[in-house]
């Protein structure tokens, strides 16, 4: 057990030495430990703890592997064996690819930025390089968030081995992969159809070039069988050929693989089309031209040894020592001397670290700051930060700049390998007389979009001389790769690369009167990408903790009548109701009243509003090409009851009107006050506007009964017509307090479908709702339980968001004096199968304890699993949580929760879960305390030293 890896992570461990003390004791006892503060000193205990867990799991395994062959080699790696940690090896292969790009592709004189596209068997990695390695310090891999410096590489689960399938009238590529066993179907081991098989079937792979010839006959048979099923089940009457089906899967694979790339470019303020695509990996050359065209890129480069570029990059990587210390000072003239001293100390520690690994201080080692130091020293770091902030986020805030962390990266330069610049070589080739290719080694039929089967020349790369120009269609092959040049592109042979010139897009005729399953799948990915990039813009440009840290927002795309087109995986509670909010706005404004540049703000319950603090920001998308007054789509962002307000009119933000709605009007009511954080609210609204603008740019480019705690009955009768596939959800008999039914049944149906389908308005068109739709985010949680109960799909969960709010400030109820303050809101996890998870309608993230305590006047004494609160059964119900918060100043506290009176029921013989409990520990001046039960719903003032303890319900057991 001592050698298995022990992880140590303690709250505030980056500030105090508690972790060091525990680690010292554990090491003396012989334990191999992973200490979170040694791996990373940044604030946020949760990702630090997850990093320690990952390192404790990986390091013993990787150290044992390295020991197995270390005896035969001298230490000469990029990190000394003694200093290696398993956490550092995560994604080291893709990172090697980025280094390979930096050392073999990028030209500092030309300075054209590069997008790396690394396609292999099970996944595809994408990265951006523009003269410097772009680092991130927090990433999520296999649902584990780790804190460690990494190159910014995005991975998508689509590659040559991704399985092709037909489900629910749609083509699907991945997420499953054929892997090393049983391999793709063409390997002759009984495997499924994959992207590799589609390329083989379309003639884009030379079957004889593999060590063992691929089985084309099996692939042909499988595509014929799949095509027959597709033609039988698809909605329209048209007939697809096996070639159409295979080409459709390739188009969907390309759309899937390009989906994360705009995040690396346009998500940071850089135009995607201004880059060069750098394609490598075993399957990259087969898709390079199509990927570049999909992204609007006119040139792609493929290195001659693209299949081993990652290994090549790892061999050329530099030895690095990173030193970092947390800071909490405001950037100012007074702080510069302190920061300079800190930089000097970290630089010295970096040099010492390199010397300890065998490098001398005068052998070309240097120090680089993550934000390059301005020429006039530390004084201009503030301006550099502001410039970078504006470039990435599109705005700046006139606020003080906080120094969170100081990091120095010390580098020992590796041997410099001089390679010819592909850009210089390309210029020479273009200025020189064209070199005709030698006769093709062979010719074969290849299937291309808009061309069908086409006779295509096949060239051996080693037989082509420098400067040779090859007009598509063509294939260029060597021992490790195949490069496909389609009819609308050409190739130029360079000393170390193959340059691909992409001319343009050949438009195909698409029938609009019948749904095309291929186009549905392709545009499903594109529309989802729009919503995801909107969400990233919202998080990056927002100010409040609720949006930036807790991720309490949703982004979506809607049709002109308010029908849902696509939504990012944000808050389930927003999805159904947002459609009604958009439909209301579409009816509220007459044709011609909305113009390009207008942005709408709403959240009145009668207009699709739910939770009053959640504002819906809506922007119409117009047809700029054909009819500038016609609305094609709406993009919306939800994250003050406003029925309908034109917040931005033709591009001008109405700050006075927004202030009136958020501050002046609420303050005009007796005993009420406006928002406590108007500046943050305005900033978040501007973030939502920026998010919607991002969406516009991308689009234009592309029977049971239950009871609520307060006694209202909930009744549901479900009638399903198996022949038509329709269903009626009848809530007749439900009490007078009508919950938000639409969001609830949509969420439940989506949860019970195991396959991946686009959750848009069309897939729910056959569902009818027999009830008046109201707007209450809390009761909708209980409707979810009710629907699951009717289907006997799941036992009851916590049935609540466990809404906790606190703050101070506003108008005094007696004196009327206004006081500045703040407000904080969170939803607390509970039990639902798993322990301590957010369930159903809410999907937010808990604030990290260290960030929570740093930004608010609280001490978090406990946040733990409420052991034994989940119901027993064949499948346990999952335990709730205990959250104990002490306030360091007087605040107003509100709790809105469920399942405090009626326990979460079990299913199929499982036991019920424990009820929740809300406790106020009141502290008196003499130091004594009194424990008070708050019930399920309460608002009360609390003093400094008082605690609120929320014990969330466990889930019911099943079976």
TrEMBL record:
GO cellular component: cytosol
GO molecular function, a single term: 5-oxoprolinase (ATP-hydrolyzing) activity
InterPro entries in UniProt: ACX-like_C (IPR049517), Hydantoinase_A (IPR002821), Hydantoinase_B (IPR003692), Oxoprolinase-like (IPR045079)
Domain Acetophenone carboxylase-like C-terminal: 425-492
Pfam families, A to Z: Hydant_A_C, Hydantoinase_A, Hydantoinase_B
Domain Hydantoinase A/oxoprolinase: 48-320
Domain of life of the native organism: Eukaryota
Gene Ontology BP terms: glutathione metabolic process
Domain Hydantoinase B/oxoprolinase: start-end pairs: 704-959
Entry-linked PANTHER family: 5-OXOPROLINASE, 5-OXOPROLINASE RELATED
Official protein name in the record: Hydantoinase B/oxoprolinase domain-containing protein
């Amino acid at each position: 057990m001592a050698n298995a890896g022990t992880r140590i992570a303690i709250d505030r461990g980056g500030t105090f030495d508690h972790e060091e003390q525990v680690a010292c004791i554990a090491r003396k006892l012989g334990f191999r430990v992973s200490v979170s503060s040694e791996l990373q000193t940044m604030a946020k205990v949760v990702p630090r703890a997850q990093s320690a867990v990952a390192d404790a799991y990986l390091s013993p395994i990787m150290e044992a592997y390295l020991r197995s062959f270390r005896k035969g080699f001298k230490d000469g790696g990029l990190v000394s064996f003694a200093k290696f940690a398993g956490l550092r090896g995560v994604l080291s292969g893709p990172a090697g690819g980025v280094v390979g790009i930096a050392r073999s592709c990028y030209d500092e004189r030309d300075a054209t930025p590069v997008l790396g596209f690394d396609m292999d068997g099970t996944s595809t990695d994408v990265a951006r390089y523009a003269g410097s390695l772009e680092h991130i310090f927090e990433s999520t891999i296999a649902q584990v968030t780790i804190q460690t410096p990494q190159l910014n590489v995005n991975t998508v689960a689509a590659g040559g081995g991704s399985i092709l399938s037909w489900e629910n009238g749609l083509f699907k590529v991945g997420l499953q992969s054929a892997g090393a066993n049983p391999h793709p179907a063409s390997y002759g081991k009984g495997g499924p159809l994959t992207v590799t098989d589609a390329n083989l079937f379309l003639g884009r792979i030379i079957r004889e070039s593999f060590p063992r010839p691929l089985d084309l006959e099996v692939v042909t048979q499988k595509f014929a069988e799949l095509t027959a099923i597709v033609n039988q089940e698809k909605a329209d009457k048209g007939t697809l050929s096996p070639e159409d089906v295979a080409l459709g899967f390739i188009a969907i694979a390309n759309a899937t693989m390009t989906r994360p790339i705009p995040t690396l470019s346009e998500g940071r303020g850089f135009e995607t089309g201004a880059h060069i695509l750098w394609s490598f990996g075993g399957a990259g050359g087969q898709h390079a031209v199509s990927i570049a065209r999909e992204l609007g890129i006119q040139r792609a480069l493929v290195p001659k040894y693209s299949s081993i570029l990652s290994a090549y990059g790892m061999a050329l990587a530099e030895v690095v020592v990173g030193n970092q210390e947390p800071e909490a000072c405001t950037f100012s003239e007074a702080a510069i001397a302190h920061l300079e001293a800190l930089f000097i100390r970290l630089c010295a520690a970096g040099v010492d670290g390199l010397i300890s690994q065998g490098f001398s201080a005068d052998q070309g080692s240097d120090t680089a700051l993550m934000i390059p130091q301005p020429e006039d020293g530390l004084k201009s770091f503030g301006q550099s930060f502001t410039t970078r902030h504006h470039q990435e986020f599109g705005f700046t805030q006139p606020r003080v700049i906080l120094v969170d962390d100081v990091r120095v990266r010390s580098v020992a330069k590796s041997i410099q390998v001089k390679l010819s610049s592909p850009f210089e070589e390309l210029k020479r080739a273009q200025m020189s007389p064209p070199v005709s290719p030698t006769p093709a080694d062979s010719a074969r039929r290849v299937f291309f979009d808009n061309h069908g089967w086409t006779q295509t020349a096949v060239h051996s790369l080693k037989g082509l001389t420098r400067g040779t120009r090859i007009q598509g269609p063509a294939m260029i092959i060597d021992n490790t790769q195949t490069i496909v040049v389609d009819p609308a592109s050409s190739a130029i042979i360079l000393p170390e690369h193959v340059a691909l010139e992409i001319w343009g897009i050949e438009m195909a005729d698409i029938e609009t009167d019948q749904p095309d399953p291929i186009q549905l799948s392709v545009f499903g990915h594109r529309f989802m990408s729009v919503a995801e990039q909107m969400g990233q813009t919202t998080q990056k440009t927002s100010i409040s903790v609720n949006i930036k840290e807790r991720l309490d927002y949703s982004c979506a795309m809607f049709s002109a009548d308010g029908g849902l087109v696509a939504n990012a995986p944000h808050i389930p509670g927003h999805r159904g109701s947002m459609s009604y909010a958009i439909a209301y706005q579409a009816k509220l404004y007459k044709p011609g009243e909305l113009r390009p540049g207008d942005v709408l703000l709403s959240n009145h319950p009668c207009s699709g509003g739910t939770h009053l603090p959640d504002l819906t920001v809506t922007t119409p998308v117009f047809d700029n090409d054909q009819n500038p007054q016609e609305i094609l789509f709406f993009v919306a962002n939800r994250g003050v009851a406003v029925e309908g307000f034109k917040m931005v009119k033709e591009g001008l933000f109405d700050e006075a009107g927004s202030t009136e709605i958020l501050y002046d009007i609420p303050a005009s009511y007796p005993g009420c006050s406006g928002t406590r954080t108007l500046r943050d609210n305005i900033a978040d609204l501007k973030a939502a506007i920026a998010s919607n603008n991002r969406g516009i740019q991308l689009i234009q480019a592309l029977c049971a009964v239950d009871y609520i705690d307060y006694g209202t009955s909930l009744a549901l009768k479900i009638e399903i017509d198996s022949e038509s596939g329709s269903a009626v959800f009848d809530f007749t008999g439900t009490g007078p307090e009508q919950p938000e039914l639409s969001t609830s049944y949509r969420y439940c149906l989506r949860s019970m479908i195991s396959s991946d389908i686009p959750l848009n308005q069309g897939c729910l068109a056959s569902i009818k709702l027999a009830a008046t739709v109201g707007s209450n985010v809390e009761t909708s949680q209980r409707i979810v339980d009710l629907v699951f109960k009717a289907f006997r799909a799941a036992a009851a969960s916590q049935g609540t968001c466990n809404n906790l709010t606190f703050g101070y400030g506003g108008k005094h109820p007696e004196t009327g004096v206004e006081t500045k303050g703040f407000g904080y809101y969170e939803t607390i996890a509970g039990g639902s199968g798993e322990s301590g998870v957010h369930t159903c309608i809410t999907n937010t993230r808990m604030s990290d304890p260290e960030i929570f305590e740093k930004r608010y006047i609280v001490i978090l004494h406990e946040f733990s699993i409420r052991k034994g609160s989940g119901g027993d059964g064949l499948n346990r119900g999952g335990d709730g949580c205990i959250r104990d918060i002490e306030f360091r100043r007087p605040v107003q506290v509100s709790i809105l929760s469920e399942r405090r009176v009626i326990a979460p029921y079990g299913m199929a013989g499982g036991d019920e879960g424990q009820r929740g409990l809300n406790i106020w520990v009141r502290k008196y001046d003499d130091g004594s305390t009194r424990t008070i039960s708050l019930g399920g719903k309460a608002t009360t003032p609390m003093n400094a030293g008082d605690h609120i303890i929320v014990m969330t319900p466990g889930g019911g057991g099943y079976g």
